[in-house]
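To: structure subgroup
Subject: Chain for Friday's discussion

All,

I'm putting the inputs and outputs inline so they're searchable in the archive.
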Amino acid sequence: MAIKENRLQYNLLMVAFFLALLLLFGTIGYKLIDESWNWIDALYMTFISFSTVGFREVDDLSLGERIFTMVVVLLGIIVISMLSASVTSWFVQNELLLKRKKQLMMKQIAQLKDHIILCGAGDTGKTVVKELVQAKKDFVVIEENMEVIEALQEHYPHIFFVHGDATKDEVLEEANIKRAKGLISALSLDSDNLFVVVSARALNPNMNIISRAVDPSTEDKLYKAGANYVISPNMVEGTRMASVLLRPTVVSFIEVMMRGGEDLSFRMEEVDVPAGSSLVGKTLKEARIPQRTGLIVIAIKKGKDSRWMFNPSSNQLLEENDRLIVLGDSEKVDKLFSLIKE
């Protein structure tokens, strides 16, 4: 894109140069042919000639002046054609480039699997995008406002997006919803979030759906429509404000662990223990997760009954579909994923 813009600037500068050259050529030419003309008359005659506007001539033209005027008109047509060709070429190339980029993006989105779909890139959506980028997760943003998408791409140029209305099935299908792992509906209107949840659940019955609810009274409707989790910003903000006042150090610790950052490598992550893993049937002591990966296991959610076990003992048995909550950096988490697949 930058190369094409530089080329357009170069072409416009060349056209401006030839235009100035033509004005100089015509003005001097008229002055030399008829010395009785002043410089302003010669410049005026040159301008109305190459622009072909058809205003009245300065004076009755002699044969030589008419021939010279035809030359100026011909050169003017050439310069104007160069300008028109440069601008038209830039617009056509820019449109083709955008079309190719969209086609390539659609192909890449069609190849995604177990990705996350984010509907709405407003204030809440931008925070979600930041978290997903930091977690290095594949995701697709659906946003109806192209200006919002362009602003988002300035910070994250490599994200996938679909320009359209997330409440429509065909737009969700463009985001490859049938192969998605989860969907977050962060639209500003609860009615739109409700439509998204209904459509998403119909298109992919097995995915996790998280919806935003501005009005707490709509939470039940969203759950009935198929949402797995419904989050009310007002409730979250109130809980957080009270917690910061009552237990500031705990809240600060949790926020640091959840958000991480460039200056802190530790984060809380969750890792599933699938069927067939080498860890199934072993105790935490036998699995030796801290020794082999450097991670700290702070909790386990049992797969068979969704029971939580905080600060599990070394004798805790690992079973299929258990979910480990661990503390450590991304490199150590990758080691645990490799260990689980053995």
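Points worth raising on Friday:
DSSP finds 13 helices and ten strands in the chain.
Residues 113-237 form a domain with the Rossmann fold fold (CATH 3.40.50.720).

D.
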